[in-house]
Write a structure and sequence with these properties.
heterodimer, B: OB fold (Dihydrolipoamide Acetyltransferase, E2P), five-stranded mixed barrel, Ribose ABC transporter permease (chain A), membrane (chain A)
């Protein structure tokens, strides 16, 4: 056995170029994998700008950014959940309920006829109420998942239905509109030349990047997603971390709900339908592994921009909405296949 | 222990400040009284709109046979110069007038052939399903900024359509028979991308039998 080994080593030593070549292609493909979302985004922008002269304009750029800001809010929360190897299907319905509660409290307040009292809410009050609702629903998600070991898919699917039903009950199936100029500023205003929703989503992204990279909670999130048993054995309170993550996702869905309601100047009972799918798509396209432990917030932002640019481009190119769904689905499928291939090669 | 106490005190003070700036309490009876005085009256608005804007505005209605000819020859020009819409979609509205001979009285509409006979085009006068914003928007003088919310704006359309259903259509419907000639004004909705001129439905604003 030993002479054969010697021969192999000797061959390797006399052929240095063949050793270098794979090393070069390895680093090249590593770069390709690392920047795959950015490359895809660049190619997408290039194709659309060649086909439509309206795409590469400042107005359209801000339009796309304003549109994707809601998806970014939700996707950031979804990324944290997916990093723990979970999923949150309830975000779209939570968004609708929080938007409805925000609008309802702002417009109608709370009436207590027996006491002849009217409790009105200021802008700060309704925003806090919306956030609290989202966070509580997220906490409920986390509690059912950790306390009763209900699979995240099922637990959040149940909350999806509950929240949608509560939205219908609260709004009686009708939109709540006419919310005033102050509230509209959240979704339609500009601050220092940048749309307010873009500021909000930018701040959320900054905080989430800090959370995942610089805090103990961030490290715990990756640890739980990577290997939950090992994380438990190393002393991490799995239930607490997971519940916190779902609460954050709920809170971020609420922010999305407030932005949507403000932009439309109306809380629609059917708002946010299938938003969870766009969020999951952004997460997956951004390179976060659905099995948890691997991915990043900035990757998700890239994913959300790709989805937004794709939506915008298909509209500008006058593609039928039915075909738009087909194209989006295929892009998501492609992203998952690439992700699987990358995982295997690693 | 002291540190914890300070922490909780600060948190409580912050909570009180936020709470104080988040809600306000009033007497419910006062709030309801104030709301009643400032409430938008869609019925009154629709009535005023009908009398002061729509009725005089009918003088500017497009002659339907001429409009159809233009739509066939120069669609872009026809939409650009004669249609209105508040939204940004493909659906646009035209204020029209015409004379037609009744060819059929159907369950939901009355079919008329436009006169003179050389036009040869059949259109339908809606008599049952009068919905949408065609009449409100066809004149092109209302702006979304005239209303504090979209619900008020939509309620104006609902009131206009109600007036058409209850005041304009029933007397006409009771008398109209096949072969009668009717002079009508109204609004039509056309899709500027997928234009169909063979299925035109007129939402009537006025219907007058001129020859029996």
């Amino acid at each position: 056995m030993s002479p054969k080994v010697f021969v192999k080593e000797e061959k390797a030593q006399v052929q240095p170029p063949t050793l270098k070549a794979p090393a070069f292609s390895g680093s090249y493909s590593r770069y390709l994998v690392k920047f795959q979302s950015l490359i895809a985004l660049f190619i997408l922008c290039l194709i659309i700008s060649l086909l439509s002269d309206k795409f590469l304009t400042v107005a359209n750029g801000w339009n796309v950014m304003r549109q994707i800001s809601v998806n970014i809010c939700i996707s950031v929360g979804m990324t944290l959940v997916v990093l723990t190897a979970g999923i949150d299907l309830s975000v779209g319905s939570v968004l609708a309920l929080c938007g409805a509660i925000t609008a309802g409290l702002l417009k109608f307040g709370i009436e207590l006829p027996s006491q002849d009292l009217f409790i009105g809410f200021t802008l700060l009050g309704v925003v806090l109420a919306g956030l609290l609702t989202g966070t509580l629903l997220g906490t409920f998600n986390g509690w059912t998942i950790t306390r009763f070991k209900v699979p995240p898919f099922v637990a959040t699917l149940a909350v999806l239905t509950i929240a949608r039903g509560l939205t219908m009950l609260y709004t009686k199936g009708f939109p709540i509109s006419g919310l005033g100029a102050d509230f509209a500023y959240i979704g339609t205003g500009w601050l220092l030349g940048i749309p307010v929703p873009v500021w909000i989503s930018g701040i959320i992204v900054g905080l989430a990047v800090f959370l995942t990279n610089k805090t103990r909670l961030g490290r715990y999130i990756y640890a739980i997603g990577g290997n939950e048993s090992a994380a438990r054995l190393s002393g991490i309170n799995i239930s607490k971390v997971k519940t916190t993550v779902y609460a954050i996702a709920g809170g971020l869905a609420a922010i999305g709900g407030i932005i949507v309601t403000s932009r439309l100047d109306s809380a629609q009972p059917n708002a946010g339908i299938s938003y969870e799918l766009d969020a999951i798509a952004a997460v997956v396209i951004g390179g976060t592994s659905l099995s948890g432990g691997r991915g990043s917030i900035l990757g998700t932002v890239q994913g959300a921009i790709i989805i937004g640019v794709l939506n915008n481009g298909l509209v500008l190119l006058n593609v039928s909405p039915f075909w738009q769904q087909v194209v989006k689905g295929m892009v998501i499928l492609l992203a998952v296949i690439i992700d699987k291939a990358n995982s295997k090669s690693e | 222990m002291l540190k914890k106490g300070i922490k909780y005190t600060v948190a409580l003070i912050l909570l009180l400040i936020v709470g104080y700036n988040s809600v306000y309490i009033k007497k419910l009876s006062e709030v309801k009284a104030a709301a009643a005085t400032g409430k938008f009256d869609a019925t009154l608005y629709a009535q005023t709109f009908w009398q002061e804007k729509l009725t005089p505005g009918l003088a500017k209605a497009n002659n339907l046979p001429e409009l159809l000819t233009l739509l066939k020859s120069d669609k872009e020009n026809a939409f650009k110069n004669y249609s209105h819409a508040l939204g940004i979609g493909n659906l646009r509205y035209f204020l029209i007038k015409g004379i037609g001979k009744i060819t059929a009285s159907n369950e939901n509409d009355i079919s008329v052939t436009l006169l003179p006979d050389s036009v040869g085009q059949e259109v339908k006068l809606a008599t049952e399903f009068v919905y949408g914003n065609a009449v409100r928007d066809a004149l092109g003088i209302l702006s979304i900024n005239d209303f504090s919310n979209t619900m008020d704006m939509n309620n104006v359309s609902a009131e206009i359509n109600k007036k058409i259903r209850t005041e304009i259509i029933p007397p006409f419907r009771a008398q109209a028979k096949k072969s009668d000639v009717v002079a009508f004004t109204g609004a039509i909705e056309l899709n500027q991308v997928h234009l169909r001129l063979d299925e035109i439905e007129v939402i009537p604003v006025s219907l007058n039998l001129i020859q029996k």
